[in-house]
Design goal:
carbohydrate binding (chains A, B); globular; DNA-binding transcription factor activity (chains A, B); 4-stranded antiparallel β-sheet; 342 residues; DNA-binding; 7-stranded parallel β-sheet; Arc Repressor Mutant, subunit A; homodimer; 13 strands; DNA binding (chains A, B); Rossmann fold; 2 domains; alpha/beta; transcription (chains A, B); transcription regulation (chains A, B)
Chain lengths: 342, 342
DNA sequence: TCACCATGGGACATATGCTGTCCCATCTGA
DNA sequence: TCAGATGGGACAGCATATGTCCCATGGTGA
């Protein structure tokens, strides 16, 4: 498929440029709708007029609609993005990187969005939308219990979940683990609530204080409210989570100096589900928490990992030495390049 | 893949038209090179200027070259045609018909060119070029012995064989069967000679008179020159042949009224390798000839059948109830439609 | 409620590319 | 040698794309 486009380009040059330009326009509209010509032009570094011609064309073919408050993506526009994604990935060479990363990390499949979320904050949002697309295609129909984690990346995913996801599905969201010391805005409970809201689904919170001893967790496990949620987690068939850089996570969760020192000593590079691992994928420290562990992913129908930014490359690369080979990864070019260039 | 193009078209309308126009331009150049703008314009029902703009573009990208005697296809142009073929087949809907026909007839694969060779004589030539493309991709490297049949279709294939076929191959052509009463221009010996010439290969003729008795064939088989050729035929690993309408073939070969009556009585619809069969693929009459039979195809590495025109539909459909499922078919839209519409 | 700002739409000159239609010098092949 | 086909030049007309304004308006936050 890769070579094919070379010839298309030779026969109708600049068709691909135009296609890519309009595709990125569609993406940007989806991300910021409702939005006006001038904002779009600025964001995409195009002139107002070219944006306008493109919009007029897309209006003709019904992919966008113009309202007094700005441009909106139509349902057809949504579908177009979904259908054009692999094609555009081909054109930009991302497709090649996707297959490379897939084999390199042993993934079920892989989606790479362009950019680097360490540099531009909107890339995280694009990853969120990619996650939404993926879920729409991969989430089994019917009832599902979705275990999710917290974090800024997961919050971005939650922001973009659309109601169309719930068309043939009844979704229940549940935090994969108890409160992990994150700030309220990005903790799993908040993410759950937001996802449930967006998809007209249900959610169940898991309010847990910081745990310091195994004793406390054993007694807490008896609490009816908590036991019920833990039971739900045990029945989750879908997991969406992120992978974090070890030190960044330790700092964000304000872990004690003692624990941090342990992490350093044991060369922890990444974290997922509260488990810290070194570059060989060996778990070197577990945050004492209730809920899902990496090993529970085996029994899931669908596992989606979302992580981007070159700073997380080492973490992600190490992480995928652990989980079953059925995980989907959604990442960005910054991270992908960092892993592949080695 | 089929749906994808709908969206490409929605995002960049009329690019596909242009792509198709230029592709057909390339095809026409290949067919008639060296050729001038005006001839091309006339043949493709375009204006001179349009052809010129397209040619200029193709010149820029190096797919064609302009000489004082006309336009030539470059090597890149050749490659472009080859690589764009499946894509264009998608766009025109031919691809869908190809897969349909493939499953319907139980083929290894199938190439359909647009048009109907019963209506336009140049369609046969296009099929020949398609055959050339297919051989270039499928013919095993190294030495091959290619058994070919006669007929106008095979003659068209022979016309278009190109030297590039022989890049990594040494080819020997041999008539699959003895002279079948065809006129010299289209008989297998001539076709062989022409193919060998085009590919810098060898060929071995098989000159046989009309045979009327099995006795004669047995004695002829002893003749050293004939025995040698027959031995070569036995070692053929590739076969290229056509499928004919039963009555048309009987007439062309000036078969006796008696035999023709037999064919009618037994409801023969088609012919291949001198074997006539009815609509169920049952062989109802064998021309007493020396050489290859349909059953010998089993041991071949590659079998290509070439037949087009709606009038041959019944014959082709019946034929593919006989041979192994590894045959490639090259046909035209007229024939494909006739089979598929039922 | 009001004011402001971003919105879509209109307008226009300009640039670029495509089209139709000539003519012409030149090359080719019979 | 010569007739016919070749590529290239030229030009006007047309369509589309582009850059740059301005304007009325509607939604939103103060």
């Amino acid at each position: 498929m890769d070579l094919e486009w070379k010839w298309v380009n030779a026969v109708v040059p600049k068709m691909t440029q135009k296609l890519l330009r309009r595709y990125s326009l569609l993406l940007m509209i989806r991300q910021t709708q409702p939005v006006g010509r001038r904002s779009l032009a600025e964001r995409l570094a195009l002139t107002e007029r070219t944006v306008r011609t493109d919009l007029d064309s897309l209006l003709d073919t019904g992919l966008v609609s113009m309202q007094t408050n700005g441009v909106w993506l139509t349902d057809d526009g949504q579908t177009a993005i979904l259908n054009l994604q692999p094609l555009v990935a081909d054109l930009t060479g991302l497709r090649k990187k996707e297959t490379q990363l897939k084999t390199r990390l042993g993934l079920k499949d892989c989606l790479i969005v362009s950019g680097d979320s360490d540099d531009r904050s909107d890339v995280k949002q694009t990853m969120g939308e990619a996650a939404n697309d993926l879920l729409r295609q991969q989430l089994p129909a019917g009832e599902s219990v979705v275990a999710v984690m917290g974090g800024t990346t997961m919050a971005a995913v939650a922001e973009t979940l659309s109601a169309t996801l719930a068309d043939n599905r009844q979704l229940t969201f549940v935090p994969a683990r108890g409160g992990m010391g994150e700030s309220p805005k990005i903790q799993a409970n908040t993410v759950c609530a937001r996802m449930a809201e967006a998809t007209n689904g249900h959610f169940q919170a898991l309010y847990l204080p910081e745990l310091s001893s195994k004793l406390a967790s054993t007694s807490l496990r008896q609490e009816p409210a908590i036991a019920q949620t833990l039971d739900l987690i045990d029945h989750a068939n879908v997991a969406i989570h992120c992978v974090g850089d070890a030190m960044a996570m330790a700092k964000r969760r304000q872990m004690s100096a003692e624990v941090t020192a342990t992490l350093v000593n044991r060369h922890a590079v990444g974290e997922a589900f509260g488990d810290f691992f070194d570059q060989n994928g060996q778990i070197v420290y577990r945050v004492p928490k209730l809920g899902l562990s990496i090993s529970d992913l085996d029994r899931m129908d669908l596992v989606v990992a979302v992580a981007g930014g070159h700073s997380k490359a080492a973490a992600v690369e190490a992480y995928f030495k652990i989980p079953p080979a059925k995980t989907f990864l959604i990442t960005d070019e910054g991270l992908a390049d960092m892993i592949l260039k080695k």
